[in-house]
Amino acid sequence: MIDSLTNDLTCVCVCVCVRVRVYLWVCQQKKRKQQREVDSLSLCSLDINEPSTKRTRSISKVSSLINLLPPVKTAPLKRIGQTLQRSISFRNDRRTEAPPPSQPCSKRRDSKLWSETFDTGHGTPQMLSPQDIRRQEAIFELAQGEQDLVEDLHLARKAYHDPMLKLSIMTEQELNQIFGTLNSLIPLHEDLLCQLRDARNPDGSTELVGPILTHWLPCLRQYTGYCSKQLAAKSLLDRRKQDPRVEDFLLRCLQSPFSRKLDLWNFLDIPRSRLVKYPLLLREIQKHTANEHPDKPYLDQAVSMVQGLLSDINQRTGEAECQYFKERLVYGQKSWRDGMVECSTTLCCHGELKNTRGVKLHVFLFQDALVITRSSSLNDQPISYQLCHQPIPIQQLVLEDLQDGEMRVGGSIRGAFSNNERSKNFLRLSSPRGQQSHCLQASDAFNKQQWINCIRLAKEAAVLDVEPLEAGPSAKAGAEPIEDIKAAAELEGVDYDCQLETYNHIIMKVF
């Protein structure tokens, strides 16, 4: 009897174990299946078909060009993708903003090629060479850029200026200072766009563009006032962003599709970025225009004109920038108020450097003096710069490039373990007889080299200014200012040292 009961219990236990194992196996399979479904769903969710920004040729348009020339690989028009995002910080925003909500897809522009608009149905009098096609592409790029610029200028006025004025988010005076002469630039570029469109033949090609440009380019002098006031406009805009109403309005615009994820200052800076592209655009058309083409002499004249105009605008903008910062210098002692700073009309470069204790200093390199300051801002007031030491004349300035590891850096005990990293990118600026000596650290090796190059150029320019005075008036008349040398190098596309870019006040490089 006992044996039979034992056998029965054994059988029951075995059955239970089998059922439990089967149940666990089924549950495990279900979990694996669910996991596979989740993984496949997550992979599918990542497969987002975003609109492509890559330009594609229409098959029908491209095939129509086969009758004109054999397939060739045309070089695209050179683009200059540099935009002004000044590294000047006019305010210290200590607030930590919450991450914005999910933004809708931005509205992107469709980019076209001239070959997509070319229509062979109207008939062509002659075969188009690869050079002719590249010329037409360059002209079309110029016209397309004007159209985009006009649209952006209208957008800045209708989506930003007018609503903020109507809703009393900013006063009319503040908006006039921020937007400057933006409204006067709209008809200027609409006129060029209209003339370029009228010059196009029914098939989409353009014969002559040089006469249009030589007649229109003098209108660019209107940019002098706009570019000269951009620095003050940026300062005011940054201060007004501290107002919650202004900040909320600009954030809502940034999240809207029409902004293409560009903030207000990006739109206000578009005209300046377009201005510095004209020499490259015109040289591209000139490059692909044959010498015997009737448009060639007009293009040569247009290139020369735009170089002279930009050089003049650059000089005026540099003078306005220099005056802007001179007005914000605060002298700790009356004896520090140096006539060399007051008489300076050129600000070679400026930016932040750190001393051996890690304190941030804002250094200005004027044409005749080096000024070391500390930046400060109070409430809604513009930022000011308190002088730490007496200005050092450029002619007496001694520059020393310190090797990495040569400078010992003070600070906390924890920082002692990373001295190898912290003692890099130092340079020493001093005056004769040891009156002043400053060891300053740049953010990186490139920044350091920029400062060294700028200081050397400023010292060379100071020597050139002194030598003509010693030689007499005739020698001074023949000396070419360093600003003109720099501007010519920029406009001619010469691969100069990087320090010359800091002198281009239209681009406004800041360290």
Written overview of the protein:
The chain has 511 residues and is an alpha+beta fold. 50% of the residues lie in helices and 9% in strands. The protein has 18 helices and 9 strands. It has helices at 2-46, 59-64, 114-117, 130-166, 172-179, 182-198, 210-216, 223-228, 230-240, 244-255, 264-275, 278-287, 296-326, 339-342, 419-422, 445-471, 473-478, 482-492, and strands at 329-330, 347-354, 360-366, 369-376, 384-387, 392-393, 398-401, 426-430, 437-441. The strands form 2 sheets. Strands 1, 2, 3, 4, 5 and 6 form a 6-stranded mixed β-sheet that branches. It has a 3-stranded antiparallel β-sheet with strand order 7-8-9, covered by helices on one side. Strand 8 and strand 9 (437-441) form a beta hairpin. Helix 4 packs antiparallel against helix 12 and helix 13 crosses helix 18.
Any idea what the shape is? extended
What ranges have pLDDT less than 50 throughout 5 or more consecutive residues? Answer: 38-106, 412-417, 468-503
* Percent of residues in β-strands: 5-15%
Give the % helix: 40-55%
Number of helices: 18
**How confident is the prediction overall: mean pLDDT?**
74
Alpha-carbon Rg, integer: 32 Å
Main location: cytoplasm
Subcellular location: Cytoplasm
GO biological process, one term: intracellular signal transduction
Protein name: Rho guanine nucleotide exchange factor (GEF) 3
